[in-house]
Every structure is written in structure tokens, then in C-alpha cells.
Amino acid sequence: MPSTPRPDRRNEHSRRAVLDAVYELAVAKGYGKLTIEGIAAAAGVGKPTIYRWWECKGSVALESIVERLGAAGEFPDTGDLAADLSEQMRSMVEVFSGDIGRIYRGILGEAQTDPELMATVRTVMVDPRVDQCVHRLEIAVRAGQLRDDIPIREIVEIFYAPLYYRLLLGGNDLGETPAVVEYVLEGLRPAR
């Protein structure tokens, strides 16, 4: 089993070369055709360098896409819950509809049989965004905009399940996902 990556021991030039190579290869060939050998060759580093910093191709690909997310992963707080949720959902739809989404689908597929990769996905990609959403929803509950009798984390899942469903199964158009916010909020608003 590879050791835990030590960011303080990484050569930044090599790290950047690996992250760029994995992203470019995944976009050009598809995530399923990525190999550590191919990433190492494209980055101009040895396989041991990659394995010293990442446990598998999924973890290096995940780091590469997380770095490219930028503001799309942030959660706004304008005071208008519906607008904030819709805006955050729109930004994630935009990201998931492009190259990052195609790579992320591959990572999630691999994570189904790799518990360590799944833990990394949760820690690096999912949990920070869930925590931001929880914080925003707690504010909405205190302001009386949402019912207080439903666990907040379950509310998060109610909002984001359609996005992940559409991302993974290619159901309805991803672009329609923000409309779900208003449908869900109607049921979560306190009775008048």
C-alpha cells in the first residue's frame, strides 16, 4: 500500500506537470484509458513520483479537477435562499456538463470498487461542499425560511441527488437541475 502523500515533499514543477498531464490525457482519451505509465510519460516524471504522492490514478485525477473548479464549488449567501441554491446548482451544472464532469464520472465509477478512492472523493470533493451548503441551510432555518424538523444533511441530499443522478446516469438534461430547487423548497418551507 502506498504511503500517504506528503505535499511538503512535492516538487511543485513536477506536481503541476502531473496534474496538467492527467487532465489533458483524460480530456483527450477519456478517463477509462488513463494509466499511471501514460501520465508519467506525458508529465516527464517517473511512476514512483506519482505513486509517492497519490495512491492511484483516481486520486491524481481528482486533485487535478478540484484545482480547476475555482469558484464553482463555493456557496453564495445573498440572503435569498432560492437564488443562492439555484446559483450554486447552476455553477455545478456548468462544471459537470464539461470536461471536469466527464472525468469526475470516471473517478466516481472507479471509486465504487475502491474504498480508499471513495474516501478521498468524499474528503476532497463532496464534504467541503456539503459543509458549505449545511452552513447556508442552517442560516435559512434560523431565519424561518426552512422547516426545522428535517435534518439539514438530508436536505442537502434532497437538493443534490438529482444533480448526481443526472451526472451519473445521463437522465434528464443537467441544465434543468436548478429548477429542482424551487420544487424542493416548496415542500421544505414552513407552513404558513
SSE order, one letter for each helix or strand: HHHHHHHHH
Q: Mean of residue pLDDT?
A: 86
Number of helices: 9
How far apart, in Å, are the first and last alpha carbons?
57 Å
Helix content: 55-70%
What is the radius of gyration computed over CA atoms, rounded to a whole number of angstroms? 19 Å
The amount of beta strand, in percent, is: under 5%
How would you describe the overall organization of this protein?
With 192 residues, this protein is mainly α. The protein starts with 11 loop residues before the first helix and ends with a helix. The protein is 68% helix and 0% strand. It is elongated and about 65 Å long.
Indicate the topology.
Elements: H1 12-29, H2 36-43, H3 47-53, H4 57-69, H5 81-96, H6 99-111, H7 115-142, H8 152-169, H9 179-188
Helix pairs in contact: 1-2, 1-4, 4-6, 4-7, 5-9, 6-7, 7-8, 8-9
What attributes characterize this protein structure?
disordered N terminus, single chain, elongated, mainly alpha, 192 residues
Summarize the structure.
The protein is mostly helical and 192 residues long. The protein is built from nine helices and no strands.
